[in-house]
């Protein structure tokens, strides 16, 4: 009985994959997926990566349709970069708690308090916020973007306070930082990391800079309170690269758990432990294979950006794409 049920499920999945395969060809579609997507969605994608890599792919593709398996601000960025293409987001409820912490009116008011300041917005923002920004950045190149701004210029950085604090530390610049956070990363608390570290003293620590644990972990590393193998703060793609290149065999991964799929596939001999199993982004998980198939069938839901907003946001996004990634910030020098 159980075997029969399993066969039915497998057959359903096979039919679904066939449907997606047929539709993606008929529509001349490219499927882009973020590193936090469900494993089965990552497996059907033409490209899986971090926000910067996905933006680069969206800008470069010659497909007619981009199926964005990620969240709304990512699909908006793709629509700005490829205005003549159809951008599908299989579930419009795939939002972002961090992007929701600042809107255009709030940024306008903040800017008015600091006339002449340079505004650097993390890519996790709406198109309207990007349109009011001088630079956009991702976790891959945020450090390089800050370093490219003349030292005598005042900088407003939004919306992630943990990434902002990290940038102040690694660049030595004083920034005005918006007090936003991602609820998933803020939930990975220092106490949790410390407990994991005690349990797995030989594990290398890979930390996304949006994490609430970043500041105190770095402080205690530098003051000698925590010792051990390398601790690396980097983007999701940087973490995947580091996991492959590092001599370590066990890793504590402080970010959304979806990233473990690629790490485990890429390095089957290594052990990857989630810093917190509860670090699940409900927005990223809105995208399912069924919704991908339906969106390709209906050519909906589409994400579009008002052309005037897009034209203004494009400058900040182009500056982001022109500045190369900074590479990971190594906290401890081991390994
Ligand atoms: P990355 O650009 O590092 O993939 O991060 C995107 C994101 O939303 C992290 O929560
Ligand atoms: Fe937004 Fe956080 Fe989800 Fe990333 S993990 S998409 S920052 S809510």
Write a structural description.
The chain has 335 residues and is α/β, with parallel strands linked by helices. The protein has 3 domains: 2-94 and 284-304, Rossmann fold, CATH 3.40.50; 99-181 and 312-323, 3-Layer(aba) Sandwich (Rossmann fold); 184-280, NadA-like (Rossmann fold), CATH 3.40.50.10800. The protein has helices at 2-26, 39-44, 51-60, 72-81, 104-113, 127-131, 142-147, 161-171, 183-186, 190-199, 214-222, 236-245, 260-266, 289-298, 307-322; strands at residues 29-34, 47-49, 65-69, 86-88, 118-122, 135-137, 155-158, 176-177, 204-207, 231-233, 250-254, 271-274, 329-330. It has a 5-stranded mixed β-sheet with strand order 12-11-9-10-13, with helices on both faces. A 4-stranded parallel β-sheet has the order 2-1-3-4, sandwiched between helices. A 4-stranded parallel β-sheet has the order 6-5-7-8. Strand 7 (155-158), helix 8 (161-171) and strand 8 form a beta-alpha-beta unit. The longest helix has 25 residues, at 2-26. The termini are far apart. 48% of the residues are buried. Bound molecules: 1,3-dihydroxyacetonephosphate (13P) and iron/sulfur cluster. Residues 71, 96-98, 124, 182, 184-185, 210, 256, 281, 283-284 line the site of iron/sulfur cluster.
